[in-house]
Amino acid sequence: MDQRLIKALEASKNLESLNRQKKYAFEKYQESITVYHNGGSFTAGVELIREIGLYLSKDLETAVFIDNENIPIEIENLQNFYHKVWDIYIRALQEYKTEYNDIISILRNNSV
């Protein structure tokens, strides 16, 4: 078989493998931003953080949120909930960034 064809096939397999790794890293990130609180399941993200912040800016200590299963969940002590969501979100984001950068680094090293 032609060497160029063999190299192209190897490059294609490597790229496919890296794409699977990127997809897996993102799926892992999505799972890690799930917050369980008061019997509800919430997705830690900018939208939820802003929503909690809005209630806190109105000096509310309790609010109702719709969880991932569309169930209304009353959350008491919004400050604690805010910190819990924020911590989970930031930790997951940093882990995803590190894992993604590792994958990109492998891609760059293989393309040299």
Query: How many beta-strand runs?
Result: 4
How many H/I helical runs? 3
Helix content: 55-70%
Q: What is the terminal separation in angstroms?
A: 23 Å
Uncertain ranges: none
Q: Structural class from helices and strands?
A: alpha+beta
- Report the principal-axis shape: elongated
Could you give the order of strands across the largest sheet? 1-2
* Largest sheet report: 2 strands, antiparallel
How much beta, percentage-wise? 15-25%
SSE order: HEEHEEH
**Average pLDDT number:** 91
Explained architecture:
- This protein is of the alpha+beta class.
- The protein has a domain at 34-111.
- It has helices at 3-32, 46-57, 78-111; strands at 34-37, 40-43, 62-66, 72-76.
- Strand 1 (34-37) and strand 2 form a beta hairpin.
- Helix 1 packs antiparallel against helix 3 and helix 2 (46-57) runs antiparallel to helix 3 (78-111).
Secondary-structure topology with pairs:
Layout: H1 3-32, E1 34-37, E2 40-43, H2 46-57, E3 62-66, E4 72-76, H3 78-111
Antiparallel strand pairs: 1-2, 3-4
Helix pairs in contact: 1-3, 2-3
Keywords summarizing the entry:
112 residues, alpha+beta, two-stranded antiparallel sheet, 4 strands, 3 helices, 16% strand
